[in-house]
Structures are given as C-alpha cells and as structure tokens.
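To: structure desk
From: M.T.
Subject: fold request, one chain
Message: Could you run this one when you get a chance? Sequence is below, nothing fancy, just the single chain.
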Amino acid sequence: MTPSPLSRKTSNLSESVRQQLKMYALAASAAGVGTLALSQPSAAKIVYTKTHRVIGEHYHLDLNHDGTADFKLTNDYYPPQYYVSAAQPGGSNGVAVNHSYRARALFAGAKVGPKLNFHGARMAVSDPNGVSDWYGPWVNVKNRYLGLSFKINGKTHYGWARLNVKLMPYHGFTATLTGYAYETIPNKPIIAGRTAGTGDSNAQPGTLGSLALRRK
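Reply: Done. Structure tokens follow.
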C-alpha cells in the first residue's frame, strides 16, 4: 500500500523533531560541563598563619606546620655588630635577596616566585653604638615581607613572612613576626600579603563549556 502524503509528512516532522531534541541535548550537556567546571574549586590554596612573635635570639619558623623548621630568624649580637638575619637551618631553602645578598624587604603585592634569587641573608646590621653605622633593607620598617622558598617532599613551594623591625640605639633591633603564609601548589608564585586564594579560574575562553554558557 502506498503511504499517503500525510503519512510521509508526519514521518518527516518526527525526524526533524528528533534532530532538534538531539541538538538541544548536546547544548544542555555542554552547558552542564561548563557549569560543573565553574563550580569545581581549584586545588591551589594559600595557608596563612597569623601570629605576633617578638624574635629573641633565635626563632625557628615552620611554615607548613609539619614539625620541621624551614627557616631560622636570628636577632643577635655578634661582636662587634648587632644584626637581624634569616636563613634556612639546612637544605636548599632560602629568602629572596638583592644583588648585594641582603634579604629583600618586599612590599605587599610583590610576587614571590622562581624569578627571584633565594639565599640565606642578613636583614639589618648596626654597630655597637647603634646610631651612625647601620644598614640593610630592614632597618626601621613596618609590614614588610620576606620572600621565602622552601621544600615540601622535595618540591619547591613559595611563601612569605611579614615582620616589623625597629632599630633600638645602643641595643640593636626589635624584630616582630606578625604573620606568614605559603602556597600549597609546587612552583606556583604567591603574592606577598595575600592570605587566601583558590588560584586561577578553571573556566577557559573558547572551551565547550564557556561557549555553551554564552549561548544561554
């Protein structure tokens, strides 16, 4: 029996509907992938510790609280000079230094990462009279940052330590640690002063998810 024109028309319409439903399903799936990507937090994380520690002769700084000191902050008198310094107790950890191998006194917002040079270094120095002969980036500064590079399970991580350092004539320096932080992802730079963050967004321009979201 030859199908009537009406039958053929109904069949064609059903095929068209199926194609539209298929396209809709693909678009909805893409949009779902994009939304899921946006909702997933990045693995990047800054771990911040607030403190108020006046540095005596020595203070061992454990950035990631694993029970092992990562840096040794020293405020001491070594005849004929008073000095404040920061160094690793061992291994390959270091603080960001300038061309004279003095510890940099970074401002908030500075990037701490692989482009900096790291080493153990003096921060500030004064002679016994404490008045005329003093030098170093950390003389009489407030809310400045040490850039830090240290190892976790053999991988390099970056961090910062915030300190105030005040020259005390005839008595050396008073150094106070007010906070420190590190980035949990190896080799990822950290911004001095930043206390929280989740890294870059997972949604990238031009991805299927982002294209689907723009169509909505």
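Reply (cont.): The radius of gyration is 29 Å. Let me know if you need anything else for the meeting.
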